[in-house]
Predict the 3D structure of the following.
Amino acid sequence: MTGATLDFRHPPDGTVVTVRGDVDSANANALLAAIERRLFTGRDARAILDISDVDYFDSAGVNLVFRLARRLAGYGSELVVVAPPTSIAGAALRHANAGSAVVVADAVPAAAPSRPAGPDD
Amino acid sequence: MPSNQIPADVGVTGVGLVPLPLNEPGAGDAAASASRADDLYRLSDPLLSEVGLEELLDTVLGRIREILHVDTVAILLKLPGAAELIARAAKGLEEEVAQKVRIPIGRGFAGRIAASRRPIFVPEVSEADVVNPILREVGIRSLLGVPLIVEGELIGVLHVGSLTPREFTANDAELLALAAARVAPGIERARLFDELGRQQSVAESLQRGLLPDRLPTLPDVDVAARYVPAIDEVGGDWYDVVELRAGRVGIAIGDVVGHGVRAAALMAQLRAVLRAYAFTEPDPATVLTLLDKYVQHSHPTGLATVVYAVLDTEDGTLTLAVAGHPPLLLVGDGTAALHDVRGGPPIGAVPFPHYAAHTVHLARGETAVLYTDGLVERRGETIDTGLERLRQAAVGELDPERLCSRLLDELVHGTRAPDDIALVAFRRPRLTAMLELRISARASALSPVRRSLRSWLREHGGDRTVVDDIILGAGEALANAVEHAYRSGDGDVQLRAELDGDTVSITVIDHGAWRPPRLETDRGRGLAIMRSTMDDVEITREALGTRVVLRRSLTAP
């Protein structure tokens, strides 16, 4: 069993979605659908996608980020992607030249404090 | 003989129930007595004691039907611990058995025989004295039944019936009583044996069902396992192998103290609970602490020894926590050593136990073995003697499958031991100069193949961030190839990785149709990522498919 796991946290100003594990063409569509289901029922002003701790992340993941950003923009919401440049996902976003299209942060913004370090951190 | 002295007061008051007429047996009739001797022999055939319950019942019923010239014959057995009889076997009354008809003791024909423990003859069947509708539906006119008694205990009722009105003679009753006396002990023995067998096999199949059917096929680690049941009782040993995140594999082995179904059931729970914690807790010591909490809370009398180990298949770090379990065995080239870490107490043994994680390095080619004490313990010798025997037996065999077989052969000689045995052996295979893999065209196959490639690159000295880049680029090429191959329905994708000096070259081949990627799509982005992560990308479209060759320096950033 590899694949990815999803965690949702709801600070007052939005939703923090934390993805761990491998994100690739085997699961990107299912992950996007699961994230959208949770986000669009909550009408969040801001969504934070924390992918700083994934083990693998390729163009399927980059595409997930773009599609999610586009959907949220359509609802007037903002997407912040957390992926430091040295992280796996950060490198993939850099190689895909995605930095100009989405907001990439090094850490979960202070207004929405990061969840306590999980056992895999 | 008292059994054919059917008294006038049969203890029943039903209309139509009459005592048997007491005929004088035909003592002077030589032919009759010869045939009678033959009849008796056929009912007490010693061969009958060697067959199972079903065959015994079937044979005896068949012979009774022939000897007494009756249309129906049935055996009802008393349900253990209940005041009921259940139809167990029949000829001419199969429906009674199929419907598992139950007769309360004391009611109806068979119920009254059981209650009175005396034979009963019903010359003309009526609704009043037969509660079982099947007997009436079949059209039985006359019935004769006798109790089955073993060592003073009633175990059931045997009865015969006729579809035409018939006067059963005292001779018939005597023969039936004799048949009952002869077959009852056999039935009881076979029934007990059957139940014992059923209990044993339930427990054994329970246990077997709880162990993994087959071990997961894992990238970059070879695993073999064995389970040997104990000679006469089901045990509580188990093993488990689970694939975790990021190239880590969890390996557990455990031994619930005690035997029988209870031990097997607790084993099942411990295995599931450990598995659940393994997926969320990366630290083996934490997993054992939580497992102990579970046992203390939910099974206060439960006790088990456990080792839980996590192997990082990439760098060979083996992190293990031990709860009162025999030591890990490490087998290397021509060596074998027991790795006795300071473990905590068995799970469930003391309140608030402390478990610590220890790390061991498992070099490529080395094999680690976890086992339960059934493998090493022998009556009348210390455990150290058994451990030393295990250590010596392991020297020289590194292949996990063959090592498991050898250890069982040499330590338990292929026979079942008095205690059950579980055994798991695993190793990181040696590196080859060239890595060649073939995968089926499914997206789910991508993750394991990337894992294998990552281990290969790391082992060849690739720096972590460089390896991350190469894996990303190769991952894109593999995802493309899987998509091509999948679309064209044409099977496999091949991966080859070679090292030439400092440069790694990775070739990915599929046999699908090439589709030019459009920019700003997944695949267009994938191509951009390939070019960005690699020094050189070469795509060759051939009639039979696509070949992508990626090159990258392993050391340059």
